[in-house]
Design a protein that fits this description.
two-stranded antiparallel ribbon, globular, 9 helices
């Protein structure tokens, strides 16, 4: 039995695409870009806020990223105030987490969302101190797909990679988990398609949260 599960946040634990779209559109409208569709934002996300802004600007026509610095600062400002806009846990997530707690399986969150907003979302949805470790984007740890964030979590939990299952919804997540040596599972209810998860290296795929229990 695995001793811990590390979860991605956006598209895995939380259905947060509306907050991302709202913040992105609000930030970029000042520069004449957007609004973009929910489907577009599902592919803008996953590699941190800076990458999201770059992708949105380029989709809007700013190929040279002339407005990047201003737009990125604006996005961070708007998102800080609106990171909980229409955010909710995916159906079945609460039940999965409750079962893991009952079995004394430790839980952690690893997100490329800025750390303060990661904590805000997780603690608002699930309560303070519900997860054993929460890690969002910080300056001292490389973003996913670097496995560094997983290593930090393992160190905090006192576990090895073989003890851990990693669950996420993008190729970035699959590469992160595999690079760290964790058993890596793709969530099919998230932002990306099955084919991307397979190509990213998913060792298993689950269609709904409680299905994860067969691998824990």
């Amino acid at each position: 039995m695995k001793k811990a599960v590390i979860f991605d946040l956006d598209g895995t634990l939380s259905d947060s695409i509306h907050s991302i779209k709202y913040s992105g559109d609000k930030a970029l409208e000042a520069f004449g870009y957007g609004p973009f569709t929910l489907e577009q934002y599902k592919y803008f996300v996953g590699d941190g806020a800076a990458a999201l802004v770059r992708r949105a600007l380029q989709a809007g026509g700013d190929q040279e990223l002339v407005h990047f610095q201003e737009a990125y600062a604006r996005y961070r400002e708007v998102f800080r105030e609106n990171c909980m806009y229409r955010v909710k846990p995916y159906e079945g997530i609460q039940e999965l987490l409750a079962f893991l707690k009952d079995q004394e399986v430790k839980t952690a969150v690893l997100s490329n969302k800025p750390h303060a907003e990661t904590e805000n979302v997780v603690e608002t949805l699930f309560g303070k101190d519900y997860f054993d470790v929460i890690r969002g984007q910080t300056e001292d740890v490389a973003l996913k797909p670097s496995p560094e964030g997983v290593y930090r979590i393992l160190e905090q939990l006192g576990l090895g990679a073989a003890d851990v299952l990693y669950l996420g919804d993008t190729a970035t997540d699959m590469q992160t988990g595999r690079s760290a040596g964790a058993f890596t599972v793709g969530a099919l209810w998230g932002f990306r398609e099955k084919e991307e998860l397979i190509q990213g290296g998913a060792e298993a795929l689950v269609e709904y949260p409680l299905e994860l229990l067969r691998y824990v």
